[in-house]
Amino acid sequence: MFTGLVDDVGLIEHVADTPAGRELRIVSRYTDLADGESIAVNGACLTVREHGISASGRGWFTVAAIVTTLGRTTIGDWETGGTVNLERAMKLGDRLGGHLVLGHVDGLGRVLDTRDEGDAWLIDLELPASMRPLLVDKGSIAVNGVSLTVNELLPTGVQLSIIEYTKQHTTLGLLAAGANVHVEADVLAKHIERLLMPYLRATDAPTLAAALTELK
């Protein structure tokens, strides 16, 4: 489990396609990783296969993405020299500064527009239709592993407001219109939707909100 508070931006040093999927070697500041531990790479929970320390003193580790993961993420498009947001799994007793993030990518969002507005950088993000009911104004969403607050609900997605610190300390500052990003909805919203789905199916209402109104 993660918090969505990115604490390093890693450099993809090597990419290799394998019969089972794809393997990546990533350079980071982490020098005390353990083989088998979980790490969020652009919000996708992956397993450390090998790790070590380079001659320069920087840490490195390898992860692998199986075919199923490649089909649900952007990892198949990653290239040597690219950068990725990194977060190690949280420990019990850690401060939960973001929100509960599982590292399970729900879908891909597409950046529609980015622009400066005052001291904020706004991102308009188009989301899969299945994800939109899970989001609320000022609720939580993870984008490429970064815990963010929904600034505004849009007809086809959400608007995000990025502060300068987040822009400088994650890869979000590199996003441009047309880019695809990993998106994970709030896990609490997903569980609520699952629990209420039988009631939605029992009505002819087009949305969950309409179904709840009909069942009152």
Automatic annotation (TrEMBL):
Stored InterPro entries: ATP_synth_asu-like_sf, Lumazine-bd, Lumazine-bd_dom, Riboflavin_synthase-like_b-brl
Organism encoding this protein: Gemmatimonas phototrophica
Gene3D superfamilies tied to this protein: 2.40.30.20
Protein name: Riboflavin synthase
EC class of the enzyme, as a word: transferase
Chain ranges of the Lumazine-binding domain: 1-99, 100-196
Catalytic activity: 2 6,7-dimethyl-8-(1-D-ribityl)lumazine + H(+) = 5-amino-6-(D-ribitylamino)uracil + riboflavin
Keywords attached to this entry: Repeat, Riboflavin biosynthesis, Transferase
UniProt EC number: 2.5.1.9
Known pathway: Cofactor biosynthesis; riboflavin biosynthesis; riboflavin from 2-hydroxy-3-oxobutyl phosphate and 5-amino-6-(D-ribitylamino)uracil: step 2/2
Transmembrane parts of this sequence: none
Pfam families associated with the record: Lum_binding
Lumazine-binding repeats: 1-99, 100-196
Single GO biological process annotation from the record: riboflavin biosynthetic process
Signal peptide range in chain numbering: none
Role noted for this protein: Catalyzes the dismutation of two molecules of 6,7-dimethyl-8-ribityllumazine, resulting in the formation of riboflavin and 5-amino-6-(D-ribitylamino)uracil.
Gene Ontology molecular function: any one: riboflavin synthase activity
